[in-house]
Hints:
- The chain is an alpha+beta fold.
- 29% of the residues lie in helices and 27% in strands.
- The strands form six sheets. The protein has a six-stranded mixed sheet.
- Helix 1 crosses helix 3 and helix 9 crosses helix 11.
- The radius of gyration is 26 Å and the shape is elongated.
- The two termini are 40 Å apart.
Amino acid sequence: MExxxxxxxxxxxxxxxxxxxxxxxxxxxxxxxxxxxxxxxxSIEAKTDEVxxxxxxxxxxxxxxxxxxxxLQAHMDxxxxxxxxxxxxxxxxxxxxxxxxxxxxxxxxxxxxDNGIGMAxxxxxxxxxxxxxxxxxALFTVNEEIGLEGAQNLGPDMISGKTLINLDSEDDGExxxxxxxxxxxxxxxxxxxxFSPDNFSYFKISVSGLLGGHSGGDIHLGRANANKLIxxxxxxxxxxxDIEVSSFKGGNLRNAIPREAEAVFGIxxxxxxxxxxxxxxxxxxxxxxxxxxxxxxxxxxxxxxxPDYCIDSNTSLRLIRALYSAPHGVISMSHDIQGLxxxxxxxxxxxxxxxxxxxxxxxxxxSLESRKNDIAGQVExxxxxxxxxxSHSDGYPGWAPNIDSKIxxxxxxxxxxxxxxxxxxxxxxxxxxxxxxxxxxxxxDMVSFGPTMRDVHSPDEKLLIPTVEKFWKHLCRVLxxxxxx
Length: 485
């Protein structure tokens, strides 16, 4: 059996067509052409805005013209990742899908179910003549995966509906009513090069084997931050002996908890023999602190040749103090949803630049816009006190949970009516486009739901077949119920 033959046929065949259209982020021309041709084929009104978002409008089922307009929303782009042994050009080649038991997968590449299955559901709702509904607007946004750019720059006259269903969630039986907003804060330390002292011994201290994880989804797990561990070690050394710091690097992505970090430093020869015992003591303390959390942590030290230069003492001391004392982790929990992280910050990466600069990248998240700005401000003030030059990204707003949401109640009732169990009402400490929609349309009432997916953004991405039919039935029931309200 092929993907297009699965049930419900209209939804799966549409998804199958989408997988054949190249659509990596920033290259959505072909999928936009497909969408506009789809609208033309089904005699549906369609338009685009300046950044390339597409909107379709479908009239209500006769007799339901006065029902509220419902916006179905999905994003066009997909993450383009493949295994190293796979020949695939995401700019022109179709995704090769196959059925693996209860899952749909791709051959060595991302599947693009994120958010192709959401697009397919919105298009199926547009094309299906049998479902009952009020007026529908289907919105397809660009460049979601690289910064929510389509939602950020949505044309002012694109949507008129006050109820929006985001089709970009990844777990059956869960309805999302909130997400975090985010902003990046960058600190730049300028330093002078000083010659490395001859009467010092030099070492490289490194930490590896940490679990890391997503700075939104995993920040509450209390995993170790490699940058913090190295900064703490050097700070404790500096309280005992005169030291020189030559380099510091750690972490990589702004939205990932750093798994590895290392620094090269020197200590006066009179104290070099003490360093081995101090490292053992420090390693034991750290491993005990993270016992049961970081089972594969490795903290090691090795002698290295004298580097050509070190960071001037004033800057290195300010840098280490700032990294050691910088806030990291969960700042506050939600008062509305039990167990939800409301606000957090991630000390993500430290990099030595070519022009005698050290770049520290951090990322802040919160479901409340004021708290997001507050924690970003605290991080800014922290690094300003250390003498760094601080800047912020544009960021994106959070989506604060509305426990009185009408569409949430309708969606929950619809799921329970269909499947006999109440769905979980949740919010996520990560970003969805909903926060940006709410900024531009303050009256929007929104939810997000979808079928079960796993390992998205990787070649292991897979879509659970039975949950797709449940997803479709749920969406149809919600459209029916809201049009009767």
